[in-house]
Design brief:
single chain; about 70 residues; alpha+beta; Alpha-Beta Plaits; four-stranded antiparallel beta sheet; 4 strands; about 30% strand
């Protein structure tokens, strides 16, 4: 099982943002488990954290690793 990384994505503000980020993560990490909380502006990814961060940033958003 891959380690889960939680990103705070402050500029994820609507359903379109959520869909765009989810699609970017699916393309970059097809088998990764992705959970999103639009209200809390968090994205949780079980998979390669660096690739996930790059995918979110590549989609035009600003991922910041959340403290555990």
């Amino acid at each position: 099982m891959s380690e889960k990384t939680i990103f705070h994505v402050e500029d994820m503000s609507c359903g379109h943002c959520e869909k765009t980020i989810r699609q970017a993560l699916i393309e970059a990490l097809p088998n990764a488990a992705v959970d999103m909380d639009l209200t809390g502006q968090t994205v949780s990814v079980a998979g390669d954290a660096a690739m996930a961060r790059a995918a979110i940033a590549g989609a035009g958003y600003t991922p910041v690793a959340a403290r555990h």
